[in-house]
Amino acid sequence: MMSRINDNLKADIKAFFGASGSGKTYSMLKSVPPGKRALAFDPAGSVTSTDKSFKGVTSWREFMALSKQRGNIRIAYQAPGKANFEKWCKWVFALADARQECYLIVDELSGVTSPAKAPEHWNNIINLGRKFGLKIRAGAQRPPEIDKTLIGNHNGIWIGHMARTGDAEYLAKETDIHVQEILKLRSSPYHDCIMFERRGVYKAHIAKRPVT
Ligand SMILES: Nc1ncnc2c1ncn2[C@@H]1O[C@H](COP(=O)(O)OP(=O)(O)OP(=O)(O)O)[C@@H](O)[C@H]1O
Ligand SMILES: [Mg+2]
User: For residue 160, which atom of ligand 1 is closest to its CA?
Assistant: First the structure.
């Protein structure tokens, strides 16, 4: 019998790192196939302003009611802070079901996690979500500020323009990509990036002309 859990599903966890304006939110949303079920934690309202297929709600009751529906809904919860993030994580994990895969989008992790281990429910999403059909897309401006659980479990990183050399060095250490290659990524209007898959496997996208 089909159940809520399917051990055969593959992990799909992607992290997006770049300075403000580098293109994290844009690229994160591009990586979610159109028409698929998706639930977002969107403290700044960037998800709904970047991708019009998402309905943004500020009321928790409304988010619960809408996200309980089955099928390919796309809903963003627009509220800041750690307490709201943990509430969101607990709820979307409880809803997760291997029979209906769902993309979870966390637009800005730095305000809601810390460099220590991930908070309980976010940790469950990262470590157990695969079997429940969850696919994760999470972004942060500064990689050293966010939880090590995500850093340890991703299977892909999008790297955009870094504002600080120290942050580029952090990612260079994490990926074995040469720091100079990360430091040369440009922000708007080029939105250069590196798509890192695993050690030794990555691709740089350097724009020939401005893209915005
Ligand atoms: N590859 C791209 N092609 C075209 N436009 C892009 C691209 N990447 C980003 N943009 C545009 O550049 C602007 C900034 O991108 P985005 O909002 O994704 O930045 P961000 O990294 O999420 O910034 P912040 O950390 O401030 O949220 C947006 O208007 C977005 O539509
Ligand atoms: Mg953004």
Answer: 21
Ligand in closest contact with the CA of 210:
1
What contacts 51, CB < 8 A, 6 or more positions away? 29, 32, 74
With 0.90 as the threshold, say if the pTM is over it: yes
CA 3 to chain centre: 26
CA 162 to centroid of chain Cα atoms:
17
CA of 66 to the centre of ligand 1 (A): 27
* Nearest ligand 1 atom, CA 139: 22
> What is the spatial order of strands in the sheet that 38-41 belongs to?
55-57, 74-77, 38-41, 102-106, 134-140, 13-17, 157-159, 193-198, 201-205
Distance (Å) from CA 79 to ligand 1 centroid: 21
User: What pLDDT, in 10s, does the model give residues 169-186?
Assistant: 999 999 999 999 999 999
Q: Examine the pLDDT at 1 and tell me if it is beyond 70.
A: no
Ligand that lies nearest to the alpha carbon of residue 158, given by its number in the listed order: 1
User: CA dist 157 to 30, 58, 69, 140, 198, Å?
Assistant: 14, 29, 31, 11, 9
Domain residue ranges in the chain: 13-168
In terms of CATH, what superfamily is 13-168?
P-loop containing nucleotide triphosphate hydrolases (3.40.50.300)
